[in-house]
Amino acid sequence: MIGKMRAVALERAAVLEELKGLLIDNLHLSLQPDDIDPDAALFGSGLGLDSVDAVELVVAVEDRFDLDFSRQTAPSEPSSAKASDQAERTGASAVGDALSGRQIEQSMRIFMRTLNALVDVILWARAQSPLATPSATRSL
Fold it and tell me: Could you give the 3-state DSSP secondary structure of residue 112?
């Protein structure tokens, strides 16, 4: 049990560091990886990213982690009123229906509040992949 928890923690840490690098390289941020707080807001008063940055980040994440969010169902976050509002507007159910590209982008904005939230989305999407492998054997 502890070995599995350690493997998940190590995978999570590796994904977080990779995301910091993607932010810096792809969005041309003039920061060092250690300067990026994983709990800081990505948009608005946090890192100040905008909607164009969000699209670029999604594309970079899909490329780097071999994911295709347009083929995924949206992760549910039942405790979030914002997610519920989004689900009502897009017609997605609480358990997540297949979404269009635009709906995926909107859902990603909800789940991309912080780097920690984005790490969770990436790990969730990996687990949904038909090619998913155990985290202990997956390399970054």
Answer: coil
Conformational region of residue 50, where left means phi above 0, alpha means psi within -120 to 50, and beta covers everything else: beta
User: Using CA atoms in the order 139, 31, 109, 127, what is the torsion angle rounded to 10 degrees?
Assistant: 10
**How confident is the model over 42-93, as pLDDT tens digits?**
988 888 888 888 889 888 999 999 988 766 555 554 444 444 454 444 444 4
For the chain, which domains are there? Answer: 2-128 (1.10.1200.10)
Going from the C-alpha of 72 to that of each of 75, 90, 108, the distances in angstroms are 9, 15, 11
Region at 66 (left for phi over 0; alpha for psi -120 to 50; beta for the rest):
left
Region of residue 10 (left: phi > 0; alpha: psi -120 to 50; beta: else): alpha
Q: Is this prediction's pTM over 0.70?
A: no
For 85-128, how does the pLDDT look when each residue is reduced to its tens digit (9 = 90+)? 544 444 444 334 455 566 666 666 677 889 999 999 899 888 87
